[in-house]
């Protein structure tokens, strides 16, 4: 596995002055071995802190590790620090490091990836702060804040199972792959005041979620089992290719999407049992996938809808016959509408089981309750109903 280099041989190369020490992978097995790295300005290669290295390890001296820096399966380390390290060229990984409670890398500003998983006792850390990273994963820690992480842009950000985490505010402006936040502390408040564009996000178990500047979602935005009562994306104009979905957000009773004009994929709103209407998409004209709505609605309205490439499929526990009557005007011509909806149109009331259907698959039943509607003529219509768009499925899969 790890190739252990003899540190003295490495250090024999240069003087005590700033130098580059070349190793492929060096394993630090004690504080004495860590201290031997002090004269290296740059460690060219990877550094592993061995599982029996001791309770307190300080690696001060080096400013850069060009490869990876890792601590794995370590049940002894309690404090871990470096006052000098600014850059890790590879991944700064800690996994299954169960006694570590304090980490201080006060100069560290740049890593390719930061991955801390099952660092179950870690309750505080200091970083440079970290301002440059492609990927950050923080999972299963005892942290109540992530203050040392201050990135303006990142590819992937994954924060999960940090049971004490109550607040996360970041100046993040753009994220090019996926933001995943789930199963953290109850009451978690997320604030992304500067976020303007994001590829995908999967947000679950969050109490507050603020994205006042968000303009574009390139991929999909998915909100599951959150505790917020309202959701606002006041500046969101469109999703380029993915879905917007809200599933099982039991307290949700209000949404704000005043500028949203198009959704590249589908729209799924299901089992948000406190949501009694869906009248929040006043500017929405184009939907590239399907619209599927399930809930306790009494009113559903999409006043500007111009084109829905997939199905339009609404079912409520309540009576929405009046809404269905208006909505049906957009149904395919075969269902008596003007064809703005290209897939099957279905709109039904008084469905006790409406909240049980939370998947992305739309119904192809073509049922319509408009009071005056003829259900039987619609029921024979079979359309190969669009899935909401594969992105939602992919995001769900990656969250499992
Ligand atoms: C975690 O590390 C401990 C040693 O501290 C080891 O005994 C245990 O098997 C590791 N757990 C996993 C899941 O790898
Ligand atoms: C957290 O969200 C997930 C969905 O991603 C859900 O299955 C789970 O029940 C939620 N946990 C709590 C405690 O709400
Ligand atoms: C919302 O978008 C407008 C127009 O692009 C911009 O002027 C405004 O600053 C944005 N608001 C926020 C809070 O970012
Ligand atoms: C995402 O959208 C932004 C703004 O529309 C664009 O500049 C960027 O290239 C897109 N990125 C991807 C990965 O599609
Ligand atoms: C994120 O969004 C992009 C499009 O911007 C898509 O190609 C990619 O598959 C998505 N990734 C995940 C994990 O959903
Ligand atoms: C609907 O959401 C509630 C929580 O609000 C949850 O307990 C229930 O299991 C969800 N039902 C389905 C079918 O997902
Ligand atoms: C819903 O939210 C909007 C803006 O956030 C607010 O103006 C409105 O009063 C809210 N409506 C209800 C019923 O809470
Ligand atoms: C929503 O519908 C469920 C049945 O799916 C019902 O148990 C619940 O009382 C309803 N909630 C509200 C607020 O109407």
Automatic annotation (TrEMBL):
GO terms for biological process: fungal-type cell wall organization. Residues 1-18 form the signal peptide. This is Uncharacterized protein. Gene3D superfamilies: Receptor L-domain. Keywords: Cell wall, Glycoprotein, Secreted, Signal. It comes from Staphylotrichum tortipilum. Residues 331-373 are annotated as: Disordered. Residues 345-373 have a biased composition (Polar residues).
